[in-house]
Amino acid sequence: MFRGLLHARLKAADQAIASGRLDDALRITSEAEISAHAKGTKLRARLAEAFIERAREHYRADRFTEAFLALGKADRCDGSPEKIDELRKQVAAVADEVSRQRTERRHQVELAKHRIHAGSLAAGRRILENAPEGEEEFDQLKRELESREKRGAELLAQAKKRYAEKQLGAAIDRLIRSRKINAHDEAAIQLERDIVATVIKDARSALVEGRLAQMKHDLDLLDPLESAQAAKRELAECLTLAQRASRALQTSDFDEARRLTQRLATLFPQAKWTKRAIDLLVKVDENLLQLGSGPLGDFNSNALANTVAVPADVRQQQNALADTIGVDARNAVSSSLAALHLLVDGGGSYLILRDSHATIGRAASNDPAQIPIFSDLGERHAEIARVEDDYFLMSPHEVEIGGRRGRQQLLRDGDRVVLARRAKFTFRLPSRRSSSALLDISDTTKIPNDVRNVILMRDTVMMGAGSSNHVVCPGQCANLILFERGGGLWVRGMGRNEPASAVELGTPQEISGISFTIQPWTTRTI
Fold first, then answer.
1. 169, 173, 175, 179 alpha-carbon torsion, rounded to 10°
2. Is residue 457 within 8 Å of residue 490, measured between CB atoms?
3. CATH number where 391 lies
């Protein structure tokens, strides 16, 4: 390089350092001729110190990236490695700490924002109390917090006012909006408790007085309040039962309406009106049952030409139907058949006894009892007698009835009777519509023809799905009633207009989804 040009470049580098144009000076002093020159070496040393000082300025201003860049340029100027390394360590340590603090502040901002937007204003305020002053994000959140607190307080005041005015729907609306803004406000929580208690009290009063529409309105008010769901559960169940009973009444299913009303009365005995409703439903059901099993239940003028009078029925009942009702002579089940065998497809085997007295004894006998049991019993070990609507068990032996031992006791629904180790059954009265009884035979007790249930029939036997029937049928099926007319057996659907059908012995019949056969009861004697 020409001497004049070299000195000019050295001078330009010196001026660049003096004026703070360090990058220009670095570019000039990095030229081979300049860096090899003695004056150029001195300039590079000055430039390294200038870059180190610039790095310190960036460091003090928390511009750590710029500080690292300046230290890198000082390295290129062959500056003091000790100074550069020491300062680089300081910058790195402080940069890490500042980065950590910034991350923590960002976390605080996000956490405070989440708490505030989730309705936890108190938690958001606690976070912001520790926030540094002058941070725009924190200051903005503080302003938002104050605005939300003000709006929440206004809505809560409106809710209290509506509650005092008995405008519960409007009060709940304002309360919900207030709690969305400030979910943990103690005053709002207490107001919600007061509102729930008031509405529950009103709903209970409505149920007691039989104002079911008002009760539904009251309970519907509580739907948006999660805290009210447990408190309203019992009343909601009562309302559901009442609604189902009402629908059953509208469809003339009086038995179902009565059953549901009884459940309601058990669940909420304070509703005294349910007793009156149950009594009326029982009367309706009983009247319909009597009408359905009487002459008007199967008026068929075409059959009258082939009818004959059937002798008086076998059971001498106080409220028996007329014993000369016209029935088709070809189809009548003779009144002399006091024991019948009922076979239900998928429903098991039943023994039907039509006498008012039924003897119980061992099956292995020349003269078996009416209810023969394969067990070590006497030939006439016990007897069940019906007196009007009551059933009594009498025995010359000590027997266990409902946990009580004796020789004569009144049988109650659910009583477990133990005559011997392998002679046990449960006495049941499954249907309020019929005074016929059911003996549910124990699994360890065996009766001929695989019978699992014995029906002590008085006028009617209920058949259908559900435990309120004497004969429980599988699957979906309509309820049927098996009834006596003039000593014969007939069957018809409940609540239907279809005529009754005479039961033909030994002939399979299917009505409303129930397939069954009734035949004379026979047992093999020894």
1. 150
2. no
3. 2.60.200.20
Residue carrying the six token digits 């259908």: 464
Band of pLDDT at residue 347, cut at 50, 70 and 90: confident
Domain check: are 283 and 342 in the same one?
no
At which of 20, 45, 79 does a domain end? 79
Domain that holds residue 471: 305-520
Share of residues in the chain with pLDDT > 90 (%):
40
Mean pLDDT of the region 182-187: 85
Query: Do 55 and 192 sit in the same domain of this protein?
Result: no
Q: Is 171 exposed, middle or buried, given 0-12, 13-18 or 19+ CB atoms closer than 10 A? A: buried
Q: What is the pLDDT of residue 406?
A: 92
Please state the rounded mean pLDDT for residues 373-388.
92
In a domain, 171, yes or no: no
User: How many Å apart are CA 424 and CA 444, to the nearest integer?
Assistant: 8
Q: How many domains does the chain have?
A: 3
Distances (CA, A) of 43 to 5, 15, 28, 74, 80: 17, 10, 10, 12, 14
Core vs surface per residue 481-496: b (16+ CB within 10 A) or e: bbbbbbbbbbbbbbee
What is the DSSP secondary structure assignment for residue 355, as one 8-state letter?
A: S
Residues with Cβ within 8 Å of 521's Cβ and at least 6 positions away in sequence, in order, are 337, 339, 340, 341, 351, 352, 449
The alpha carbon torsion through 138, 139, 144, 150 (nearest 10 deg) reads: 120
- Together in a domain, 334 and 447: yes
User: Cα-flanking dihedrals φ and ψ of residue 78, to 5°?
Assistant: 60, 40
Cα–Cα distance between 23 and 181 in angstroms, integer?
Answer: 56
- In residues, how long is the chain? 526
CA distance 267 to 429: 22
- Dist. CA 457–CA 336, nearest whole Å: 14
CATH of the domain at 57: 1.25.40
Task: Write down the residue that tokens 């350092």 correspond to.
Answer: 17
Order of strands across the sheet with 488-493?
471-472, 460-464, 480-485, 488-493, 501-502
Instruction: Give dist(CA 387, CA 81) in Å, integer.
Output: 119
Tens digits of residue pLDDT in 15-44: 988 888 988 888 988 888 888 888 888 888
User: Position 352: which residue type?
Assistant: I
The tokens describing 14, both together, are: 């010196």
Mean pLDDT over 481-499 rounds to 76
